[in-house]
Write a structure and sequence with these properties.
This protein is mainly beta. About 10% of the residues lie in helices and about 35% in strands. The chain is built from 3 helices and 9 strands. Strands 4, 5, 6, 7 and 8 form a 5-stranded antiparallel sheet that branches. A hairpin with a 6-residue loop joins strand 7 and strand 8. The protein is elongated and about 80 Å long.
Length: about 170
């Protein structure tokens, strides 16, 4: 969300409330570094991704400065997420601890700059696209869906087993 100077007209981008940075002091002190401490609660992140569930607040700390209409940030981003295993769908816990250096253009007349899209984007991009609960995950039975990690001796009768003899007659 951005607040415009004069008139206070709101331009909504999403439900990001706590990741807003007041850029007035940066613009008034061009080149001077200021500390940055931002937080987005885990509850507010529920709608950010279908596959990723944030277990802890997203905490951003670091330093920033503005120069020529651009905000430069050096940040440490911390949170914890949970995603389903690619093979067996068991929850996979991942602790996220990133160092990101990035820049954001400050639109003319804007006092409050929303950084949530960039921060969440960095977190999602840093995650393994194919998480596994363990390296030797056996996944799910393709016939009945039983977790083969929990039932290693599981055998399932193939649904097409009775038709297998008929297939032997085909060329």
């Amino acid at each position: 969300m951005m607040l415009r100077r004069g008139g206070g007209r709101r331009m909504s981008h999403a439900v990001y409330e706590m990741m807003n940075l007041n850029v007035v002091k940066f613009l008034n002190n061009s080149g001077k570094r200021f500390p940055v401490n931002l937080r987005l609660s885990a509850e507010e992140t529920a709608s950010l991704s279908e596959d990723v569930r944030f277990l802890e607040d997203i905490v951003v700390s670091g330093k920033a400065f503005a120069q020529l209409g651009t905000l430069y940030l050096e940040t440490q981003i911390c949170t914890a997420v949970e995603r389903p295993c690619r093979r067996c769908l068991a929850p996979v816990y991942t602790q996220v601890d990133l160092k990101e250096v990035f820049e954001v253009s400050i639109p003319s007349g804007v006092d409050i700059l929303g950084l949530s899209p960039q921060i969440v984007g960095f977190i999602l991009a840093s995650l393994d696209p194919h998480p596994l609960c363990r390296p030797d995950c056996r996944g799910l039975c393709p016939v009945c869906g039983v977790n083969l990690n929990e039932h290693p001796d599981h055998t399932c009768r193939d649904a097409d087993e009775e038709h297998r003899k008929l297939r032997d007659f085909l060329p």
